[in-house]
Amino acid sequence: xxxxxxxxxxxxxxxxxxxxxxxxxxxxxxxxxxxxxxxxxxxxxxxxxxxxxxxxxxxxxxxxxxxxxxxxxxxxxxxxxxxxxxxxxxxxxxxxxxxxxxxxxxxxxxxxxxxxxxxxxxxxxxxxxxxxxxx
Amino acid sequence: xxxxxxxxxxxxxxxxxxxxxxxxxxxxxxxxxxxxxxxxxxxxxxxxxxxxxxxxxxxxxxxxxxxxxxxxxxxxxxxxxxxxxxxxxxxxxxxxxxxxxxxxxxxxxxxxxxxxxxxxxxxxxxxxxxxxxxx
Amino acid sequence: xxxxxxxxxxxxxxxxxxxxxxxxxxxxxxxxxxxxxxxxxxxxxxxxxxxxxxxxxxxxxxxxxxxxxxxxxxxxxxxxxxxxxxxxxxxxxxxxxxxxxxxxxxxxxxxxxxxxxxxxxxxxxxxxxxxxxxx
Amino acid sequence: xxxxxxxxxxxxxxxxxxxxxxxxxxxxxxxxxxxxxxxxxxxxxxxxxxxxxxxxxxxxxxxxxxxxxxxxxxxxxxxxxxxxxxxxxxxxxxxxxxxxxxxxxxxxxxxxxxxxxxxxxxxxxxxxxxxxxxx
Amino acid sequence: xxxxxxxxxxxxxxxxxxxxxxxxxxxxxxxxxxxxxxxxxxxxxxxxxxxxxxxxxxxxxxxxxxxxxxxxxxxxxxxxxxxxxxxxxxxxxxxxxxxxxxxxxxxxxxxxxxxxxxxxxxxxxxxxxxxxxxx
Amino acid sequence: xxxxxxxxxxxxxxxxxxxxxxxxxxxxxxxxxxxxxxxxxxxxxxxxxxxxxxxxxxxxxxxxxxxxxxxxxxxxxxxxxxxxxxxxxxxxxxxxxxxxxxxxxxxxxxxxxxxxxxxxxxxxxxxxxxxxxxx
Lengths: 135, 135, 135, 135, 135, 135
What we know:
Chain A is of the alpha+beta class. Chain A contains 4 helices and 5 strands.
């Protein structure tokens, strides 16, 4: 049977929800306060889950220092203290909903990890609202 | 691949564990302090999980305001500040264990949600004891 | 300079807010949902703070096992899984608001502790509402 | 002896740290990532502390529904999902550091509360960084 | 459909990561600070998940008092306030990584539980690092 | 009026409670499981509180990056992943109770901070047991 390891990380960012294919009125109707022209922000909490076999020599699925460095390089380094809509090309045309941010983070990490390991990311936008990809 | 969204909500309620088919002695033996005739209570924390596809126009699996309103209408509105055994017909003959409360909440929400989405509820009775339905 | 030690404990109880000197209509108007005839309930979290000198032989202000036993004997033993209004004589005529519960707990502990130590209790009714006595 | 009551609330906002009396280079040197031209954001958690006497008729220092409405009207209503620098006149020329936000919130609430009650606010910018006013 | 019940418990222990088949230099290179000769320690948090059918007479998957006693007898009793490497025969030759501790705990509990129930354990070494077995 | 700023940090360490002036029997009687010859351990959480005036140019009581670096240099750098009794000269003859660790940390930080600022440290040994110095 395989084992899951989890690593928690945080980043703070501004964002707004907006579909550029819609006019301002429709965006306001659909996204409400989250559509504020001047952005709002969150302390995002990310939990990365990796499933794999335990290496009998180390007792590790993965060295968490390695995983932590990867999360910093791919996710929290670029995203922390950023404006997701303006500063991050990933969201230049993609609405930075929690669902979309989680999928973007998953894609960034997936290509850096060995295929033998399964990857899932959970992203908390607030304590009350969070998402997971893939489900 | 599908995405999960989670919404957290809380309600406070009184309850007691009791099987009306048993006499008082057996109820006390099985349920201990939880059988107190005069009830005790909890701050229940509910986490609703929905799994579905992300709408490419909104970036949402579901608008969380819609989900939040549904949770208030079906769950936290009726249950908050109630006595589950005395005030709620769902538990008139059903023992309000955390397992049974979770299933009742799942049934209330399931019939209001689109069949394309999977639903799971987690219910914390305390920080140390919680349940999930379906497993 | 003196040192503070804190011990956290929990208990679950039912209660209702009600002033027996008022009629039902006024109680409902003032206390709202908290006045429910059939009670509601909470997971109460208690934090006991003691301020004193550190014993140079033990490095302790107080042996926390002693404090913990005292909290069980005076507070969590009697109050856990109880109905505060019906089961506890302290609240037979005293409205079990968080403020009043905190003061009652303080009085129970104060008389069991050495006068050289200062005592303060904090009581969480929910994560969002809590009180402290004395301020 | 008096009793303290606490009420917790949250709001999400964008901000940047910037002293308009300084040039861009000095602002970047002093405020680092927090000076990002495009803003970043936080889930702010506010804890309002009121110290007063317990009303013997209600068992309350203050009706928390009243306090909660006041916090919504003065703080979380105006600040939630806002950009503090651009949307809030309070911070048009005042750097929205946690220290300054806490003092502004205190001033808003202080003028709405009875003089018989002492007021203190605690503001969490993240789980690791928080401030209190007055100390 | 089946229901999951969860029980949370804690224990405090010292440990060091070390592979006795390697020399000191390699152990230091691989395990870093975690290889400290004199040990370091953690507050471990364990979450035990059991999946089964709800007994219609009790409303329980399992009586949590029974599960709690089992966790004390098999896990927190023996491991609390211990040095995992020196005091626990399970880790005499097995590196006490979080992954290995979780599997050992799973094996201890698995043999005491009815085959009709599925078992999974989650173990937090810190708030940021945790594991689950089986994945 | 002055403002308080708080910074949270963590470190993991092994320790045992022992008074070398006592024999083994008395140490076991007084300190119980905490006296284990082979040590046990904790995830310690430290909260540093500084009280001072807000600098009108920065909006800061202190630059938290400066405070964070100081905490790393004086506290979490030396203590993390250590055995307090064996690796740290501060505890060569001082029993590493939470009370004594808190005072040692306070002394280390106090001499590095400007006299215009008041300092208090809170140290969590577990979620249930914590201390504060000075009270």
